[in-house]
Structures
1.
Amino acid sequence: MSEERNEDLSDLYNAITEERGKPLDFWEVSALLEIYGIRDIDAQNDYGFENVFAMAKYMMRYKNMKTYPVKALVNFEELLPFWIRVLKNYIRGLAFAMPMFVQIFFTLSIGYAIWSGIEMDQVKATVIAVGTFLALIVTGASAQAIGRKGLFYLKQGEVILASNITTVLLNVGYVFVVVVGVILILFNIFFEVFPTYYFFVMIAFYFLLSFLFLNISIYYMFEEYNNILYFFLIGIVLVYIAHSIFKVRLPEAQFIALIFLDVVIAILAYRRIRNLKKKDVKSEGEGLPRASILFYSLIPFYLYGLFYFVFLVTDRMVAWSTYVEAKPYFIWFNVPYELGLDWALIALVFLMGLTEISIHEFMYRINDMVVKYKYEQYKDFNNEIYYFFKKFNIVYLILSVIIILLTYYAIYFVYTYTDYEFTKNFFDSYTPFVYWVAAISYAFMVNGLMNVLFIFSFSRQNFSLKAISIAMIVNLVLGVMLSRMFGLEYAVFGLLVGSIVFWVYSFAYSVKMFKKLEFYYYSSF
Amino acid sequence: MSRIKIVWTGEGTYPYVTGGVSTWADILMHELKNIDFVLIPIQMHPYVKLKFDIPPNVVDIINVPLWGTEEPIEYIRKIEFSKIYEAKIKTQVDKNIDVLTPIMILVLDHIFRRKNDFDALGDALYEFYEYFHVYDYYETFRSEALWNVYKNYILKHYKDVEDDIPSVFDMVEGLRYLFRFFISLLPTLPEAQIYHSSAAAFCGLSCVIAKKKYGSKFLLTEHGVYIREQYLAASRNQMPFRTKEFLMGLITLVSKLNFHFADIVSPVCNYNSRWERKWGVNEKKIHTIYNGIDTNIFKRFDVLKEEDRPTVVMVARIDPLKDIETFIKTAQLVAKEIPDVLFKLYGPIVDEKYYHHCQELTKELNIEKNFIFAGLTNSPQTAYNEGDVVMLTSISEAFPFVVIEAMACEKVVISSDVGGTKEVLEDYGFVIKPKAYTQFAQKVIYVLNNPDIAKEMGNDARESILNGFTIEDMVENYGRLYKDLYNEFKEEKGYQ
């Protein structure tokens, strides 16, 4: 029997298994021998075996004599050291929310930004806010869908399909914006909710901002947050030139800036999408799903995007629609309430930075641990990630308290120690009250968003949708009740309880996921 | 006689990917006009265009993409969305997992080589097929109930294993593989007398099910050795050991199932049947049918050369499996005897690292004047005719087209003795031990120094190709085989 020979074929074994994984059985070694150019006749003449298969069986004795390379899920060489990584991701997360910060920062520092102005009268402020909120709600759905489906193809390297689907969804978004806009126009013609000029301002902001948000959703899809920031800064500069230098009034100066931004970003965004097709030679661009399946798979994302923005603006709408004396319209901009929320939005921006750290660190750890833990230790694997989840939440809690306090005292410092005029209203009325409640709400909401990100990454989008749907309803119902019973500022408790519900629901589902992580990890396709 | 209907199944080939298997399939579809074909191509993903003109006798194409879809059956079944949705809701309410559990366990028993009952496995997969015509595939495979069935099996199976203990990743990856690869069991199979699989692979599962469901005859053509190719791919990808164990267990199961249920196994050369015999295929089932080429395209003609130098041509992609190093070393030895000799390599670069290594070797051996990397050619017949000799130095082949094409061009072919090369080349060219560049060089020098002998050998080589390796031969052989299977089918149905 050839298997009883004592010939040393270890060098040959090393040669055929070079840069290969550990052979499973003699079949694999046979295949490796064959592609090394050893035939049955060579096995017979040169090595004295009956054939390649017999030779391979003999050589299986060497299988444990060396270590074999195994492809890892986490590339440690490319991974930055912990603190650098964390800082980089925090900045990335900040960049994501930076446009919001820019808007608030310039409103507070120079008195206006792309769609706000402290000195505008209350009617204008009302209609601009309504136009803005409508734009956010109407485009939020499309932005989510574009991000989801565009990335789905981009990550597979199917750039032509990414380009095609993004164009389709962007166009659907445009149509949606126009349809809603037409309905609003008809509604105002019949019911005369706002006088013509103010309605014009509202609808102009609605269209211009909708197009802006839709176009920048392309840049969000490409994760080019810096470009988005630059666009906003250019917008501010344009408003500044028109308003402060050429003395164009607000909001006309803002219209000029927005029209410019819309045209330029639309051209750039469409070019960016079209150029995807040009640079690729590998993908063939076939096989988009049929429309029914496409929209079925996107419905949770459309609804999530829609409900998320409805949730964000609900408390304002509720507060502004609360009965106050001499309220000319159903919706009436309330300065102290808005200031409190804008103040809290600053805290929100700094909290948002943490989301990027969380998703990155979780995915890195999961992909690292999943190969380190043995199959029977799957509960330990789940526990380790769950433990990290708990730890991260504690860190988040501490950081959110710090951020909320710092944001409060930063404004307080300016108010107390400087003569800066824009902060003088911050400590009037119920503005600080709204700040505290809203900032705490946002802390819960951002933590909920982190949970929702995990849930999305495990392809359980329906649970994210449930979380935001329930939160939105709670926000609305409770806000209406409290504001009508105790005063408009109590609408902010709708936001607080809604955020807590959002957090509790998403937290509970995340805990459930982490406790059975091996299953959710498996089924994340 | 009514028209024969054949369901042809393939994996990663016709009609979406070009290559040897696709060319073979395209010829069959075009030439066998009296037969209606339905194609079930298994694709990696649905993002590819048709690469061939589909003849009118291809009456339907049922695409089966395994990856790149959010809803696995969206491309596979041409049914209304409402029905897909209905199945989803039904599955969410009650998966009836008790029906699926014994099927899954039997599949796992075979993957881990604990059982070897392919009749029972065939029945189980037929039940699996029927089950997923009622319940939703995606919902079921994402359910915790199914995961628990699988997880409990794994926990029990590896309980006493001490070496290479699987990781959580290995465990997870196993069921993911099943989810992806068993998508191939989802198409609603049309009734046909014959199912023809182009590999002993997942594309053959449809043939197994059709045999169970309609009593269709199952013809299996093996162009390469599927299981061997998969072993090599897993090995090259440095897959974790236990992940590989699962994947290769699954592939082995599928290959064996193909061999078990095939009525006829037709490798493209006798050499390929080595592995098939080893896997226990009944000798009587094996009918080798060689591939054929178009001898009107591949024939001798004059090519205008830039320089009138003795030329040795090889048409091969730049890949370690083609052993380009031996071609280069041969060039060095030949250049010592025939200084103006030119070695031309036509072929795309598929391995950049290896290409640079080969470039370095030509510099190191100082034969840059004698060696050209000529790149990909769209006209291999012109490339062959440029050469006075055609070489093939591969260390692994099944039945290389290059050899028969060059022979049809009346060229003396000097090839390594791999795969089925000897079956066609012996007596009409030279077969050399792989990597033996000294022997290669001796034969090249001999042929270049003896043009009259070369001419005679070239004439004989073409003659041998005209007598058994033409498209007409291949089509006739398959036509005959189809007719025999059709008659058998009718006979069996008649007896029922």
2.
Amino acid sequence: MKKISDERLEKMLTNYCEADSQQTFTFDPERKREKIIPFVRFRKQLIAAASLVLVSVLSLIIYFSFGNINNTPLTVAPSQHKLITPSSTEGGGDDPDQQDGADQNGSKSILQRIRDFFFPEASEESGASSERGGSSAAVSPTEQGNGSAGRSPSRRNPSTIPSATQPSDQSLDPPPKATEAGASTPITEPTTEPDTPPYVPPTEPIDPPWNDPEPTDPPDDEDPWSILPSEGGVMTGAPVEVYVRFDSSLMAGVTGVYCKVYSYDNLIGSSDLYDRSHQAEILDTSSQYTEVLYETPDGLIFRPGFYTFVFYDQNGNELAQWQDYCG
Amino acid sequence: MTDFEHYVAEYSPQLTRFCMKLCGNIHDAEDLFQDTWAREFDRIDQYRPSYSFESWLFAICANLFKNSKKLKYNSSKAVFATQEEKERFIRSIPAEEKDVDAYLDLHTAMMELPKKHRLVLVLYYFRSFTQQEIADMLDIPEGTVKSRLNTAKKLLKRRLYDEEDQR
């Protein structure tokens, strides 16, 4: 063992300083800094890159975790997609998050695991709510297996549709809301939509088309002129052409011929003398006869039977009558 | 040539060696060297000719080193950053000294000293400032300078003793 003395240390330091003072090596103050040691050269870049990677990883973890919590999963696994299809008959159609917690332990998010570890009660409640989601599936459009299985088809069964005078609790239930517990599947998934919209019972009976007081103004969406076979009608209200010919002496001073249509003494045409929709067309006028063609308005005659056609001039003078069977 | 350029030309070699002794590697020393001149350039208007420019320059460099963060100017643990640097150090050892390894150990031990002890040691032995000047330079009591100087020498002896013992 050899111990260095104070004198030896002093001498070494002195020699070291003298040798150092003879160094002529100097830096250039204006020279651009050049670092050779890789760590020194890339130290800032390495720290920045490491920080970027760390932030990226944390962001991904948070994004995936909170994405699952907010029921906005980035990807839907094939098994999950199968579970949420309407054709699935599995009961308790949990949303993807609840499915993650219930039967896919391997796909649990990190925050979910942490939450389950530190708050087991909360996780149990979550599981219970998941079960409630199965039993209260009336509000979940994706669930058809149990719970509301008897209710949902009843809405689609016409025989059970309540009338307006007999309201039912079932029909008055509000439609399922997407924000309720059982319906928290992604709204962009088309298969989670209800099969049929909730039935709204009619409040007023729809009048049959044949009772329409204004036959010339039928509704757009119905064909009121169609006759039921039970009533014996086969006509569809097609126009009826009536050809008449009368003495030309009656046509003196006549500029227009009009027609009134009667059915069993009931006027079914227009009461207006000058209704141009009931104006007949003068086909030919000779010294003896005048030929007139009258075409009933579309839909005026829709029932088979005898009809009386009364022609008159512009002044209301009767020119001729003609009775014919239309059918 | 301006006054500042004159100062740079005159004191750069001394400042270079001083920075090398403080930092231990050429890269950190170059940073400290350039930062010192940059600080000098910014404050050249505050310099009063009645005061020693050398003391003012090294005071700025010493305080830059003292007040810097832990890893600044001390980023590398390598005693010699390059082989050329080591060979240059060996060539600087006096010819009558046969034990080159002892000087290498001394250099290594100096680089392993804490910053505040290394700073006082270099100012005292390598720049030949008095303890009072060092106290004024670093704005610390003279007794603190003495204490740090003794502590630095004890640490060097302990390290060199251990090196000798291992050898």
